[in-house]
Design brief:
Chain A: This is Small ribosomal subunit protein mS33. Chain A: It is found in: Mitochondrion. Chain A: Belongs to the mitochondrion-specific ribosomal protein mS33 family. The complex is a heterodimer. By secondary structure, chain A is mainly alpha-helical. Chain A has a domain of 33 residues. Chain A starts with 5 loop residues before the first helix and ends with a helix. In chain B, helix 1 packs antiparallel against helix 2. Chain B has a two-stranded antiparallel ribbon with strand order 1-2. In chain B, strand 1 and strand 2 form a beta hairpin. Chain B folds into two domains: 60 residues, no CATH class; 33 residues, Irregular (30s Ribosomal Protein S14, Chain N). Chain B has three helices and two strands, in the order ααββα. Chain B is mainly alpha-helical. The longest helix of chain B has 27 residues. At the A-B interface, helix 2 and helix 3 of A face helix 1 of B.
């Protein structure tokens, strides 16, 4: 079998590339085409978690419907009850001495 | 209400979507060996300026119910325990307990 000279093979390959409209890349350089070819993954990524309705926002958007956020009402009620029992959040420190007293170890 | 890890993951997902096109363009330039090294280096520097919430590898499929990061079935977006609870409750159409 007679061997084909490499120059001729190269010409055949370049001709084939021009016919089938592919990129002639004899040195097999990386062209980065895969980053353009790949599908965009963002749209499906965003859809992973089911959409949740922001209740507070909905109430603010439609004040005429007079809806009530039960969880928020309950939370405020709990805070009030705790305050009555003396278990509320401590007062904000007014100066450095106050803040030192608050962080002091007992 | 989703926990902080889920909220962070949602943030990452939104970041990936908004920055994806630009990042792809820079990736194409930076990984393209037919371009000059200076141009490729500049593109790589630009890629480094994106925050961590622009990278798709930051995104992790977490449980939509409990926020758990391990043992999550991506098809249902649920961890194994929440999956069991919902399946037994009949909330997942087509899923039923095997018995033979």
């Amino acid at each position: 079998m007679a061997s084909i000279p490499p120059a001729r093979i190269a010409r055949i390959v370049s001709t084939r590339c021009s016919i089938f409209e592919t990129f002639y890349n004899p040195q097999s350089l990386r062209t980065g085409a895969k980053y353009l070819r790949a599908r965009l993954r963002g749209p499906s990524m965003v859809k992973y978690y089911p959409q949740e309705i922001n209740i507070a926002k909905a109430i603010r958007a439609y004040p005429e419907l007079e809806m009530v956020n039960k969880a928020e009402v309950q939370r405020l009620q709990d805070v009030e009850d705790k305050k009555k029992r003396g278990k509320g959040a401590p007062k904000k420190a007014k100066d450095k001495a106050d803040s030192r007293r608050a962080t002091r170890k007992r | 209400m989703p926990n902080i890890r889920v909220l962070r993951d949602i943030k990452a997902r939104n970041g990936v979507q908004t920055n994806e096109l630009l990042r792809r363009a820079y990736l194409f330039v930076a990984r393209n060996e037919t371009l000059s090294p200076q141009v490729r280096h500049q593109a790589q520097l630009q890629l480094n300026t994106f925050g961590k919430y622009a990278r798709p590898t930051t995104v992790k499929n977490r449980c939509a119910e409990s926020g758990r990061g391990r043992g999550v079935m991506s098809e249902f977006a649920l961890c194994r325990y929440q999956f069991r609870l919902k399946a037994l409750n009949g909330d997942l159409p087509g899923v039923k307990k095997a018995s033979w």
